[in-house]
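User: I'm designing a mutation panel for YueH family protein and want to avoid disrupting the core. Could you give me a predicted structure to guide residue selection? Please restate the sequence first so the numbering is unambiguous.

Assistant: Good idea. Sequence first, for numbering, then the predicted structure tokens:
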Amino acid sequence: MKLKIRKSLAGGKERKVFIYENKKEEYFMVAVPDVGWSADFTYETENLKEILEKSLYPAAGTMEEAGELAQRIFNWTREM
């Protein structure tokens, strides 16, 4: 189990992204407190980037910012 805190610059704003990984149960929990958003997903979640983007859109404000955050979260969780 580990928690990582990353900084993302999306939409011209710096936001902290908290990523918790539970290797034993094979899932992630991700939160972006600045926009009041969080989600959890398993290692095998299909179409993850698209799911994240759709989920982030209302909170992030614009589709562009949601897409940038979704791409970064996708990449960071795949690196862990």
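For picking mutation sites, this is relevant: The longest strand covers residues 13-22. Residues 60 and 70 are 10 Å apart (CA to CA).
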